[in-house]
Predict the structure.
Amino acid sequence: IGSSVSKDPYFKFNVPGAKGDEITIKYKDSKGKTGSATAKSK
């Protein structure tokens, strides 16, 4: 059995007191591909 990841993965976490703040998520996969996404917290 191998491993896999969804094409469009979803995750959720809470950051107390951060409502309206801008959050940036950066990633690097096992093949060296990088990316990022920025959004305002709700």
